[in-house]
Design brief:
This protein has 143 residues and is of the alpha+beta class. Helix content is 30%, strand content 40%. It has a single domain, classed as START domain (Alpha-D-Glucose-1,6-Bisphosphate, Chain A, domain 4), CATH 3.30.530.20. A 7-stranded antiparallel beta sheet has the order 1-7-6-5-4-3-2. The longest helix is centred in the C-terminal third of the chain and has 30 residues. The chain is globular and about 45 Å long.
């Protein structure tokens, strides 16, 4: 089960990439993140891990599985026997960019999980994307 939220944002892709790659700063951008702690040093890369605490959820360690510098990354965690995959994709659009956030749930019970928590997950992803938009516009002096 997969869902995406895309926004065209009036900010350069490099501004959005700076916000996206600085995962420890995400709690400043969105109320859907309580705490993000990198478990390694250096720039975000394949294999990087972060411990994330979100409201109403247990902490989870997310591992970067794919990264294209300046354009996005995917990472995943395991929860209740399911694999959850989060994706962050940036695409230049004119003077701005399209920011696409996605969440995917795989494994036995994914359909039931989605039925129970899908609306909550969709709302969280929408909120996160708007947080990235608002932060990017502030950085560009457009907010």
């Amino acid at each position: 089960m997969r869902w995406e939220d895309a926004l065209v944002i009036d900010a350069p892709v490099d501004v959005l990439w700076t916000l996206t790659a600085d995962v420890q700063r995400w709690p400043d951008l969105t109320p859907t993140m309580t705490r993000v702690t990198r478990l390694d040093d250096g720039p975000l890369r394949v294999g990087s891990r972060a411990r994330i605490k979100q409201p109403g959820q247990a902490e989870a360690v997310w591992t970067v599985t794919e990264l294209t510098e300046g354009r996005g990354f995917s990472w995943q965690t395991r929860l209740l026997g399911l694999t959850m995959i989060g994706s962050h994709r940036l695409e230049p659009v004119g003077d701005g960019c399209r920011n696409t956030l996605g969440i995917e749930v795989r494994g036995r019970g994914a359909k039931m999980f989605w039925l129970l928590f899908g609306a909550l997950m969709r709302r969280a992803v929408r909120t996160e994307n708007r947080g990235f938009r608002d932060a990017a516009l502030r950085l560009c002096g457009k907010a």
